[in-house]
């Protein structure tokens, strides 16, 4: 495994929203440093700031105050095109509702990030390896409607990993699954973090899911609390 180094750093990060004439604080003074290979879980109530924090970590949003670095890139100094390129190269996303394209096969859904990044030449080996890794190589020609929720989420994980990102961000990845399939998904994400030295961040409402993290945080009213692991690394 390569020597661990900081992958995501948040320095006194705050994010505000305007609700009519009222300024709402979504995040306040967040300090966090995640290193290569961390498996991080973040819990908190609805409206507590979890999704906002994940969007900032993924370069989907920018802070109103403070600084964010993603694998050495200073988010505030990047334009939209550069952030799009950063996401394509460095970040994989896993969502609660899978977000697979229904008209594409399993293979084609996993292949899509490689095509978008202009790297189809290495697609076949990467896709075969990852579909085997998540136990779905035999379903390569199936469509999402022919699969269970747990299988679709495994496809989504393969898609998130296919371009070898340094970061995988998972937003309630077990929220639409039963407990057995939820455990399978978390096992795969944890194994991927260990095997590929990928930094995995899981936002969850589930206390059992939160225990999978080697670092565990809670966010409430826009403030981050350390449950297990130092917030500043």
UniProtKB/TrEMBL annotation:
Domain ABC transporter residues, every copy: 8-231
Domain of life from the UniProt record: Bacteria
InterPro entries attached to this UniProt entry: AAA+_ATPase, ABC_transporter-like_ATP-bd, ABC_transporter-like_CS, MacB-like_ATP-bd, P-loop_NTPase
The protein's enzyme class: hydrolase
Enzyme Commission designation: 3.6.3.-
Transmembrane segments: none
Keywords: ATP-binding, Hydrolase, Lipoprotein, Nucleotide-binding, Transport
Gene Ontology cellular-component annotations: membrane protein complex
Pfam families: ABC_tran (PF00005)
Gene3D superfamilies: P-loop containing nucleotide triphosphate hydrolases (3.40.50.300)
GO molecular function: ATP binding; ATP hydrolysis activity; transmembrane transporter activity
Protein's UniProt keywords contain Lipoprotein: yes
Family matches, as SMART domains: AAA
Family according to the record: Belongs to the ABC transporter superfamily. Macrolide exporter (TC 3.A.1.122) family.
Protein name listed in UniProt: ABC transporter, ATP-binding component, putative Lipoprotein-releasing system protein LolD
